[in-house]
Amino acid sequence: MVDVLKLGGSLLTDKTTPETIDEARLAEVAEVIAATDDCDLVLIHGGGSFGHPAAERHGMSPTAGTTNVSAVKDVTRAMRRFNDRVVDALQSVGIPAVGTQPFSCCRRTASGQLEVCAEPVKGQSEIGFLPVLHGDAIIDARAGATILSGDELAVELARSLGADRIGFCTGVPGVLDATNEVIPRIDSMEAVETVLTGTEGTDVTGGMAGKVELLLESSMPCAIFGPAELPAYLGGEFPGTRIGD
Q1: Short-list 140, 129, 131, 77, CA closest to 106
Q2: Lowest-pLDDT choice from 41-50, 95-104, 181-190
Q3: For residue 112, what are the CA distances in angstroms to 45, 101, 146, 148?
Q4: How far, in Å, are 3, 167, 199 from residue 232 at the CA level?
Q5: 3-class SS at 122?
Q6: DSSP string of 22-37?
Q7: Are 153 and 163 in contact (CB under 8 A)?
Q8: What pLDDT score was predicted for residue 195?
Q9: Is the dihedral of CA 218, 222, 227, 232 positive or negative?
């Protein structure tokens, strides 16, 4: 079973302080992943306090781009620094994790379609590595370079790999309603759009509403859940909020 797991940037970093890792949380997540028997896991992490501030400095988003090579370097280097920290934490508990930069294997066409070359990721998995990708700047035929969110990457990569499901592990235990209770299941945006709000800190990629919308469009079993539910998810369950079928 191919399982695409996206770890939220707000889960692993303090998004109110630039380039600050939550070391205890990252170590905890690494230990949980090390304990799983899921051999076909593909991991993606968000921008957190690394990528989002860098993108904001240069006015970059999934739709607003730049041809300034220094801006692109700023974003991609910030994300590489974050990715290195995540890979190091995973390797420290025995996981054969390897970082893969989306800037080199993803692009947007003139029509805005995201294209993902999944062959490097497949090759890494086939020899027993755990691929670790992340949100990034990517070449965009419409605007030079724009931002690819980890959320969008997770959904498109899951399609390309023929994944069986997608999990989004976030800083909250699921999609919350107006009373801060977890919504157990979501089948349409209309049912929840009035209770979805923005996220704390800088986020140029859409927050919780964007996550729900992407997962509804994926047409595969998905879940949004918090770190306490990560063992259950990796054990085959759908904790937190189940999205779609």
Answers
A1: 140
A2: 181-190
A3: 22, 20, 11, 12
A4: 14, 11, 25
A5: helix
A6: -HHHHHHHHHHHHT--
A7: no
A8: 75
A9: negative
Q: What is the pTM of this model?
A: 0.92
Give the whole-angstrom CA distance, residue 105 versus residue 103: 6
Calculate helix-pair angle for 150-161, 207-218, nearest 10 degrees: 10
Domain 3-243 coded CATH 3.40.1160.10: yes
Indicate the SS3 state at residue 185.
strand
Q: What is the CA radius of gyration of the chain?
A: 17
Residue entry with tokens 């990528």: 51
The pLDDT of 59-72, averaged and rounded, is 95
What is d(CA 73, CA 217) in angstroms, rounded to the nearest whole number?
31
Q: In what order do the strands lie in the sheet with 130-134?
A: 97-99, 130-134, 41-45, 3-7, 165-169, 222-225, 241-243, 185-186
Domain segments of the chain: what residues? Answer: 3-243
Token duo for residue 124: 């890494």
With CA atoms as reference, report the closest residue to 76 among 98, 97, 54, 59.
Answer: 54
Q: Tell me the sheet residues that pair with 222.
A: 166, 243
